[in-house]
Each structure stands twice: as structure tokens, then as C-alpha cells.
Amino acid sequence: VPVSVRNTTKEEIEEALNRKIELTEEDGLEARQIKAMVEGMKDELREFLAAGGTIVAYGRRLVRRQDEEIGYYTRALNELEQLKKSGATEQALYDLWEARNDKLRKMGIKLLAMPE
């Protein structure tokens, strides 16, 4: 899902890097997962900066990566829809659905719903 805000300041990012997101007892599974992802991204950014990268370059990489992931998902969805329109068997649809979801899962991308 494309993010609605892709711009922030260097200062806001630096502040975020110095702020640990703590888990609370009230956090559900999804909140815990999101917090872990954010902390992982912050670790990734710290490593990127230590290797000589910049916050701006990292931001560009994130945008490019997100656009690529949306492209992978969209292509897989279109391929599944085209196969369905072609009159393929349920087994052929299932096989393609399973194969594409396996690839998406390995990339950490949202999985496709099985077409009706």
C-alpha cells in the first residue's frame, strides 16, 4: 500500500533514530510487528549511515523499494486475473496463486487473495 506521506525532514529522522519505540502490555500482535519493523528499519538506516550513506539517499531507496514491491504485487495480481479470464481450470488458478504467493511471501509482500 503506498504511503500517504513520503517527505519528512532530516531532523525528524535523526530524532526518530534516537527514540526507541517501546512495546506495551496493551499492544496487540499487529502493533508489536509494526514496532519491530520500524526498529528494524532504524537499524538498517544506522548501518547505511555508518557505511557512508545519507538520510536522503536512504529515503530514495525506501521509495524505490516500495514502488518495486507494489509492482511485484500488481503484476502477480494481473497475471492471476488474466488466467482467470482465459477460462483456466481451478487447479491452474490455484497453482499460479500458490506460486505467486510463495514469491510474495519470500519478499515480505502482502499475499494475493484467491479469486472467486
SSE arrangement:
Blueprint: H1 10-17, H2 29-50, H3 55-85, H4 90-107
Helix pairs in contact: 3-4
Question: What would you say about this model in short?
Answer:
With 116 residues, this protein is mostly helical. The chain has four helices and no strands.
Written as H for each helix and E for each strand, in order along the chain, the element string is: HHHH
* Percentage of β-strand residues: under 5%
The value of Rg in angstroms is 19 Å
Determine the mean pLDDT: 91
Give start-end ranges of low-pLDDT stretches.
none
- The helix content is 55-70%
Instruction: Report the principal-axis shape.
Output: elongated
Largest sheet: none
Q: Structural class of the secondary elements?
A: mainly alpha
The first-to-last residue Cα distance is: 22 Å
Number of helices: 4
What's the assembly state of these chains? single chain
Number of separate strands: 0
Folded structure, characterized:
It is built from four helices and no strands. The chain has helices at 10-17, 29-50, 55-85, 90-107. With 116 residues, it is mainly alpha-helical. The longest helix has 31 residues, at 55-85.
Name the features.
116 residues, single chain, 0% strand
